[in-house]
Design goal:
D-glutamate cyclase activity (chains A, B), homodimer, Putative_hydro-lyase (chains A, B), DUF1445-domain-containing protein (chains A, B), 8 helices, lyase (chains A, B), 12 strands, alpha+beta, 8-stranded antiparallel beta sheet
Chain lengths: 305, 305
Amino acid sequence: MAIFSDARAEDTRPIKSTTGADISLAARTNALTSPTSGLAPTFLQANLVILPSRYASDFRLLCARNPVPCPLIAESISIGCWSSVTSFIPGLEGAAILSDCDIRRDVSKYIVYKNSKIMKQGCLDILDEWTDDYVALLIGCSFSFESALIVAGLPPRHTALNRNVPIYRTNIPLCPAGVFTGSTYVVSMRSYKASEVEKVREITRPYTATHGEPIAWGWGAVKRLGIEDIDAPTWGEPPLTQDGRPLGEVEGKDHDVPVFWGCGVTPMEAVARSGLEGVVMTHDPGHMLLLDCRDSDIVPAACVA
Amino acid sequence: MAIFSDARAEDTRPIKSTTGADISLAARTNALTSPTSGLAPTFLQANLVILPSRYASDFRLLCARNPVPCPLIAESISIGCWSSVTSFIPGLEGAAILSDCDIRRDVSKYIVYKNSKIMKQGCLDILDEWTDDYVALLIGCSFSFESALIVAGLPPRHTALNRNVPIYRTNIPLCPAGVFTGSTYVVSMRSYKASEVEKVREITRPYTATHGEPIAWGWGAVKRLGIEDIDAPTWGEPPLTQDGRPLGEVEGKDHDVPVFWGCGVTPMEAVARSGLEGVVMTHDPGHMLLLDCRDSDIVPAACVA
């Protein structure tokens, strides 16, 4: 299933430094159609899953049982509501994290599934699909802690090289919840020197609303997660070392080791693989929903740019 | 590591039907030294982990990241306090779930670890070990939903046969948290007919404070979890079918399939396997801490005995 569009290649991002609301408005008016990585720095970005209301409670339970890959940070304030969400972010419960929004249009690209198969990908809005029976659910995104890593002098290689983060399907089972069964963790990967891993764990640990600390690291983790080839990610772009070599080539040498985090593609996979009937929508990976709150709101003590 | 004592063999339990507080008092005065399964029906039973305060915040994070095997339901109201706990049980936050207690004596048997190795097992109290620096952390226990299964006409085989529940170490990694790395899920197993599994999932689903619905089921799950021999559990007693045959003998036949739940031995394993320095204490598995609240307090709508 190719649900991750390869959009970093052409870097035509029109807006360099602005607020989350500016990005949402640009997406709403179709002035923005590119991915959102790096846009509106320090503003939180969220994964988006839109479900018929009958699936919402099982999905909430899926997130509660698997908070590392599926941190549920907000949802529609009521069934059918596309203009307001309730925040569950620790410390920001009930806060206005997304004001003046239209969830049907504020993402630059969406995917529409019908009976668990992709029906449309890359659509600019879901005005035709939305009905009064839908619930929008927002999942934290690891872009947040990347700012903190950069500030600490530990920038992820893919940001330095202006590439997409590599993302892998694993064989680690999710704890099932109601209709959501048979799915597995999806992980994002950023490579670091082995000597840097403890520092990287420490920096990302407080970001509990956006996947927190890594779930595994080192070359042994590749096998344990069931990843066949580190140089062939399921989504995103193959990882390169600082000097531009494929990461897999340096295995066993005194160089980078892979470090894996829970990834917000996990709940999208769970939705796609659970055989749900009817129409379900998500953002197109990389094209996130921008929020009004900032990294420093979710980790007040963290030193973010 | 043999941390599960084989105590059901002699059923010398002195108290058949009473309250959680009665059981705690009996343990405190050493009138009770047997396991607690089946005692004070409907009263919640908890797993107990007692850590030096420096490890408490990482342990909380371990529980938050792995809520299915490690549902943290309460902890010492302050560092060094053995007489009162703060409840985190959904709907009972801050409630008096354990009044008039002495956590150093109210469990019938304890284990003491030093530098991650068992130093003493089966001790009747931990008065000598407790200092002002310890924090007691309580983890939900699946005995709770067993009452609900019995009421629904789906009694676990081990309760009907008066045996210990079989418990297995798996190869499913826990999400690490700070010092707690490198550990895996531990699961309890109750076998059911394949046609009963959906009903069993439904009945146990609401018990989120006590592991909730199963994490895996069916014969394929045995391999996926990395369990080598269903008839050789890591702890507890080998599972038997209704007619007394080893469960593994009926694989592939129209008979029971294994159903696996997250198990409160998981956090004990994590504590034992994380190389913690100093003295750590837990209950001796099967010898749980009894609470004042009841199954019906945590799942109000559930029909429990």
